[in-house]
Amino acid sequence: MCDIGLYGLAIMGQNFALNMASKGFSVAVCNRSPSKVDDCVARAAGEGIATLTGHKDPADFIAALAKPRKVVLLVMAGKPVDDTIALLSQHMEAGDVIVDGGNEWFPNSVRRAEDLKPRGIMFVGCGVSGGEEGARNGPSLMPGGPRKAYDLLEPIFSKAAAQVDGQPCVTYCGEIGAGNYVKMIHNGIEYGDMQLIAECMDIMREVCGMSLDAISAK
């Protein structure tokens, strides 16, 4: 039985699945488009990773997971997340965990957690930062949800996350919505910094008449 499952095999999903598998965890993967399952399995084989298995049927995918089941979703934010939860949760049971790793608006995570609560399925909204390279080699992870769910995920997330000075770039952010909120603030700061850099470069080039080489030397 697999330690964790990942549904959604675009670039981020494939890379995070390979990341977890390369850290010694057994990972089941699934996707709406079966061809992407084949692509991910082929990538794993090409990298010498033997702990990743592909599944093209959602029921088989969930059945491949050790209980309590842990499933990470990396699909487009909004309705696709709701549709994927409905697709997979019908095969899940109380005590299982669903993690949304997309950049979701935090009230949506709160709503989804409330919808799943009567069935005993725990929901975690987790910010994932670092792009495709980070997903493959070590992202910053910002999970928010039930503490019990985080404790189940922590052994995997701590090894898959980026490591700085011997410490993993993941911590429990708080109850549901907290992880998405932290990621929202993170993105606001990040893109504000990028805008500042771009405006400074524009002033140096257009007002000061500096060449690109001169700007880069600064």
TrEMBL record:
Domain 6-phosphogluconate dehydrogenase C-terminal: 179-216
The organism's place on the tree of life at top rank: Eukaryota
Domain called 6-phosphogluconate dehydrogenase NADP-binding: residue spans: 3-173
The name this protein goes by in its record: phosphogluconate dehydrogenase (NADP(+)-dependent, decarboxylating)
Pathway connected to this protein: Carbohydrate degradation; pentose phosphate pathway; D-ribulose 5-phosphate from D-glucose 6-phosphate (oxidative stage): step 3/3
UniProt keyword annotations, A-Z: Gluconate utilization, Oxidoreductase, Pentose shunt
Similarity comment text for this entry: Belongs to the 6-phosphogluconate dehydrogenase family.
Pfam families with a match to the protein in the record: 6PGD (PF00393), NAD_binding_2 (PF03446)
EC number of this enzyme: 1.1.1.44
